[in-house]
Amino acid sequence: MTELADARDTKLSTLSQQLRVLHAERIVKRRRDGKHIYYSLADDHVRELVRAALDHASEPVTVAEPSKAKKKS
């Protein structure tokens, strides 16, 4: 968790709270090994949702032209 906090420039307490919420919502699962807790995505459904969101976020943004409203006579 320390590495994740450093990468995100986040306090450990804040990250811990965020992971607790994600675990409660069954988005991540955790495994304890001694003093360490390892987090991973809960299942393939969550993995696909995250992958789809990341794919969508990486698409180029296109701005649609405003539609020309028909003028009433």
What pattern of helices and strands is seen along the backbone?
HHEEH
Structural class: alpha+beta
> Architecture, according to CATH?
Orthogonal Bundle
Our estimate of the beta-strand percent is 15-25%
Number of domains: 1
Tell me the CATH topology.
Arc Repressor Mutant, subunit A
The geometry reads as: elongated
**Could you state the oligomeric state of the chains shown?**
single chain
Strand numbers in spatial order across the main sheet: 1-2
Radius of gyration: 20 Å
CATH class identity: Mainly Alpha
Report the average pLDDT across residues: 84
The number of helical runs is 3
Task: Give the biggest sheet.
Answer: 2 strands, antiparallel
The helix content, as a percent range, equals: 40-55%
In total, how many beta strands?
Answer: 2
The poorly predicted ranges are none
Distance linking N and C termini: 65 Å
What is the CATH homology-level superfamily?
Answer: Winged helix-like DNA-binding domain superfamily/Winged helix DNA-binding domain
